[in-house]
Amino acid sequence: MTVFRHPERHKVAVLVRHGMLVMELGIVHRLFGQAKSADGERLYEVVTCTPEPGDIRTDSDFTIPVAQGPEAVAEADTVIVPASSLEYEPTGRQLTPQLKHAMSLVCPDSRIASICTGAYVLAAMGLLDGRRATTHWRSACEFQLEYPRVQLDPDVLYTEDGNVFTSAGVASGIDLCLHMIRRDFGATVANEVARGTVVSPHREGGQAQFIRRPVPEPRSSSTAAARAWALEHLDQPITLRDLAVRESMSTRTFTRRFRDEVGMSALQWLTQQRVERARQLLEESELPVDRVAAACGFGTAASLRQHLQAALGVSPSAYRTTFRRPA
Questions:
Q1: Rama region for 8: left / alpha / beta (φ>0; ψ in -120 to 50; rest)
Q2: I need a labelling partner for 53 at 20 to 30 A (CA). Which of 32, 74, 97, 238 fits?
Q3: Where does the HTH araC/xylS-type domain start and stop, copy by copy (predicted)?
Q4: Does 210 have pLDDT greater than 60?
Q5: What's the whole-model pTM score?
Q6: Half-sphere exposure of residue 139, counting CA atoms within 13 Å on the CB side?
């Protein structure tokens, strides 16, 4: 008897354990569950499973009954391993025979991903040997000592190495799920999921996962209106002064508050948004590269090529070839 009931959908198995972080399980169901085609058809089927079916203890004051066992892993196109606050982490413990058996059922051509310290499970199975990976910054030192064969990068939000994906803390699990949705079905679907969840549609995997900066004062003016205006006018020249005027601030005050809120300078953010717009147009439109450059505010194809190469390491034409969605 098959676990998944919709063979036309991409099958996602979330493999949970005792001590599971409820929020991480919710992230996967919420994000993949919202992904729909232009006709409104769901694109994913998500199933929660566990090495031994039954009541699973969580990091909160309740348990969750999980009826599906490891057989779901064998059928899945994508297997996601969230963190556990009780088992196998941060270091020094072996996987239980039941969990090891469940992980051994992952098909060789399936995609496997971890959220937060779920990376320990992947590492213990040898799936991260020789691969670039990440985990929560608090566990980075222990992880590197325990698994020296892993090319750990503790300063990024998520990584992708072949069919193996890892993410840092809980919130970066959102970024990773959106990244996978985008790879599967394009920017339009991923952006719609992000809007429905009220989160940023895209944060580069290479963005720092931990930034020491103070939370802005509750009564201070926000720069949100300027950012919203900029997103509507990316095809036009935009200066720092233009943004400051939208908030009735001096350039100096705006610069300080923008960095406090966003974690980068306004011009860095603007370039990031233009690259993001270029990616979407390259994926979804037939516009020639010079028209894409103009629509994003880069002006020329050469400038777009330079910025895309710096951000992603590929040319516009190579990006389009790789990520172009079928009509």
A1: alpha
A2: 32
A3: 224-322
A4: no
A5: 0.71
A6: 24
